[in-house]
Design goal:
Chain lengths: ~375, ~425
């Protein structure tokens, strides 16, 4: 077990480099710049590329281009930059490129509070581009998880050939914490999707949920990439059967594998009627509230969601046994509460879902959550 | 010598309108590629949006068809990640408008890609609206009684901004293959601005024809042919040369628990000072010292965006167990080191009770508080070492982590020159005390 004292930004950069990231393009924006600085310092030393784009559009565009040469790519920004990424996020979804996008959430809208914490991009990340296709988003609560979830984000991006968001926030990125690691990273998922079809066809799938083999520019295959609705060869098509199949595939490759993506930390307690749900920095308050309430003799269950998208419906549903009240803590007006409510309603036991929300740039304190419980 | 690659075209006919110039240029591109005998696996045709954006589908090379105006950004990423590839960007005057920022910056950066601008003075695909190159007075569906704006000189703009090979010509110039060849073989950013006829819109709307197209350059007092050539380091090569001379960093060793702490509870500390007092870095050192003493630590900072002025506040939490919530509602220890910090932390100072201690140098006292006050006697210490000295004094008095751990943290985390200075300051303090 080794210890470091670092912030989430450093942990993300270290995780990226451990995951083999060799291409970073980004545009300066508070509070994501610490990641940019670490990547610019480290990547040239290991033969990687770090470039500052002329804007966020160029930065994510460079990443998408580089990814098609086989580079392992990451970009990092905050809310306003996410807005500029929007169209290219759609391109990454449609062209099926692996890409890690870090969104260090700050208080919005617009310039908002550049140096203040917020968690307002949760639904924005999910619906951040036209068309409404699913994306994957992971959310760390501290620097240790920033490291491990960054590695996982790269794995999922490659596994599913899609953009994967690391939704973090100003507080997790900027706050230094002790991190403990045992040097083990998570186990690899299967590699059957890595089999190269012969002959190579750029977007060939058999089942809708298959992931087409990604061949790089400059290798032995001629590779076509397109952001237009296309057939398996990457040629523009309007044939409804092919169009429908492509679009259904873009959803199915994530939805059908949602259980593989799901990641939560559950701490249930026999007899608990109240479940505290949270994610990111707010989960730290929710956990502390759980500890303090239990010290007072109360029974409390706690759930931290690490994979915000797709919603870990399965894992959440499992924790609801015996629960009558759910308290969702988040630094927005209740964005993830909507998802939890959806699951609670499906169970149809009249579970009450309450939000603890803050939009003033301050953290939710454990006391704030406890006051609602008691 | 027999040619291995007879054509880079596939068998599909072009989709363009009769009379459109695009197919002429694409045939010239094909002829040039055949002449150069480049491996199609090493070529990427990157297209933008618009009629010209359909072009990549008619070539048996690698292809990237992206978003409107952004073709150059993808081309840049591809080139940076694999400099062995030859990249030809095909875009229209529309793409040069919406993506003008990328055009200028790719030229300025001198990234080694070739851009062919199929410039037909309007947006063909969306119904003939005016573009950045529509001539003054030109009739389009959005300039119905004549364009009030003046055209952008694409070739001149990139020539002025660092491109290394730039040509301007019309689709009726049969030297285009030679120009494309020079562009592809040039090392840096190359661009050919090819003026064309849009048979669907600009030609009928303006009674525009070949003769007028060929005259229009001289009418705008613009030169035809190669307008700019220079030698300059291509960005990708320059980047790799620079990166190879970068000194690898010495990996920071993990923090070993070399010391012991007698802390059995969570301790919350605020250091409130001002810019220039090294508040944040001293707080990091304190956190590191805590980790070296087998404690858990968190540290968060607050300062204005204009970092060299105003308050600088650090909040540090130390604990024998993992720290969850990183905010501080009631500090146990408050170090008041500058009026700016005291002012910003007014509400936290108000929460202090007689169980907390407020440390402050004499010149900042009195401070209105319920906390016990401990006067810091730091002697003559430089502004940038006030926080360091104050923390060391506080550690000497409280001893929740050994001063030695703080010194070790300085050695492990600061650059040797700065570490030496800091340690000297601490030694001076202890000999005084």
């Amino acid at each position: 077990m080794t210890r470091q004292f670092i912030n989430g930004g450093q942990a993300i950069a270290q995780g990226a480099i451990s995951a083999g990231c060799n291409f970073f393009a980004g545009y300066p924006i508070t509070p994501a710049t610490p990641i940019l600085h670490h990547m610019f310092r480290e990547l040239p030393k290991i033969g990687g590329i770090a470039i500052q784009g002329e804007d966020e559009i160029a930065s994510i565009g460079m990443c998408i281009g580089a990814a098609m040469t086989g580079a392992t790519c990451m970009t990092a920004t905050s809310g306003p930059g996410m807005s500029l990424y929007s169209e290219n996020i759609g391109l990454a979804i449609m062209g099926e490129v692996p890409l890690v996008i870090v969104d260090v959430m700050r208080l919005g809208p617009a310039t908002g509070g550049a140096t203040t914490v917020g968690q307002g991009d949760v639904q924005f990340a999910r619906w951040g581009t036209s068309g409404g296709y699913p994306i994957i988003a992971l959310c760390p609560t501290n620097p240790s998880e920033s490291y491990t979830l960054t590695i996982r984000a790269f794995k999922l991006a490659k596994r599913f050939r899609c953009p994967v968001f690391l939704l973090t926030d100003r507080e997790v990125v900027a706050t230094m914490s002790t991190i403990e690691s045992d040097g083990n990273s998570e186990t690899e998922s299967g590699t059957e999707w890595l089999k190269e079809p012969d002959p190579f066809v750029p977007y060939l799938i058999h089942e809708l949920s298959d992931i087409p083999f990604l061949s790089s520019y400059g290798g032995k295959n001629i590779v076509r990439f397109t952001g237009s609705t296309h057939d398996e060869n990457g040629f523009l098509t309007k044939i409804p059967e092919k169009v429908g199949r492509l679009n259904a595939h873009l959803a199915a490759k994530i939805d059908k594998h949602s259980q593989e993506i799901e990641s939560v930390t559950v701490d249930i307690q026999d007899g608990a009627r109240t479940l505290l749900v949270s994610y990111g920095v707010s989960a730290r308050s929710s956990l502390e509230a759980t500890q303090l309430l239990r010290e007072k003799g109360m029974k409390i269950a706690n759930l931290i969601v690490h994979s915000l998208w797709p919603v870990p419906t399965n894992s959440v549903t499992k924790t609801l046994s015996g629960i009558q009240r759910i308290i969702v803590s988040e630094l927005n007006l209740g964005q993830y509460k909507l998802e939890i409510e959806r699951i609670a309603q499906r169970i149809d036991r009249g579970i009450e879902v309450i939000g603890v929300n803050r939009i003033d740039g301050e953290l939710i304190s454990p006391r704030q959550i406890m006051e609602l419980v008691i | 010598m027999t040619e291995q690659y007879v054509s880079y075209r596939d068998s599909k006919p072009y989709p363009f309108c009769p009379g459109c110039s695009h197919s002429i240029v694409l045939d010239y591109l094909n002829a040039t590629l055949v002449k150069l005998q480049l491996d199609p696996h090493k070529i990427v045709i990157v297209t933008d949006i618009g009629c010209s954006g359909l072009s990549d589908q008619y070539f048996n090379t690698n292809a990237f068809h992206g978003l409107h105006g952004r073709a150059i950004t993808y081309a840049t990423g591809i080139k940076l990640a694999n400099p062995d590839l030859k990249i030809v960007v095909i875009m229209g005057d529309g793409g040069c408008g919406i993506g003008g920022h990328h055009l200028i910056n790719a030229a300025r950066r001198n990234i080694g890609v070739t851009v062919l601008v199929l410039n037909n003075f309007n947006y063909g695909m969306t119904g003939g609206q005016h573009s950045v190159t529509t001539p003054h007075g030109g009739i389009t569906s959005t300039t119905r009684i004549g364009n009030l704006e003046h055209p952008l000189d694409i070739a001149g703009t990139v020539a002025l901004n660092g491109a290394t090979f730039v040509a301007r010509t019309t689709t009726f110039d049969n030297t285009i293959p030679h120009l494309i060849e020079q562009a592809i073989l040039s090392d840096g950013f190359s661009l050919i601005d090819i003026w064309e006829l849009c048979a669907a819109y600009f030609v009928p709307n303006n009674a525009f024809n070949r003769a007028q197209l060929e005259e229009s350059m001289s009418k705008h007092a613009l030169q035809k042919g190669i307008i700019h050539q220079e030698k300059r380091d291509e960005y990708t090569h320059a980047y790799r040369a620079m990166a190879s001379s970068t000194i690898p960093s010495v990996k920071q060793p993990p923090l070993k628990p070399l010391f012991k702490s007698n802390l059995d509870n969570t301790l919350r500390i605020i250091i409130a000072g001002a810019a220039g007092q090294k508040i944040a870095s001293t707080a990091s050192t304190l956190g590191t010292a805590a980790v070296l003493s087998n404690l858990w630590a968190t540290k968060r900072d607050d300062y204005p965006v204009t970092v060299m002025t105003g308050h600088s506040i650090s909040e540090i939490i130390l604990s024998p167990k993992e720290i969850l919530y990183t905010g501080i509602e009631k500090p146990d220890i408050f170090l008041a080191l500058a009026p700016e910090g005291i002012k910003t932390c007014k509400s936290q100072i108000d929460t202090l009770t007689d169980r907390s201690v407020l440390y402050a140098p004499r010149e900042l006292l009195p401070i209105q508080t319920d906390a016990r006050i401990s006067t810091l006697d730091l002697g003559r210490v430089a502004r940038k070492e006030i926080a360091l000295a104050a923390v060391a004094e506080m550690l000497k008095q409280t001893n929740f982590i050994p001063l030695e751990a703080f010194k070790e943290a300085i050695r492990q985390t600061q650059r040797p020159f700065i570490a030496n200075e800091s340690l000297k300051t601490l030694d001076k303090l202890s000999t005084r005390g």
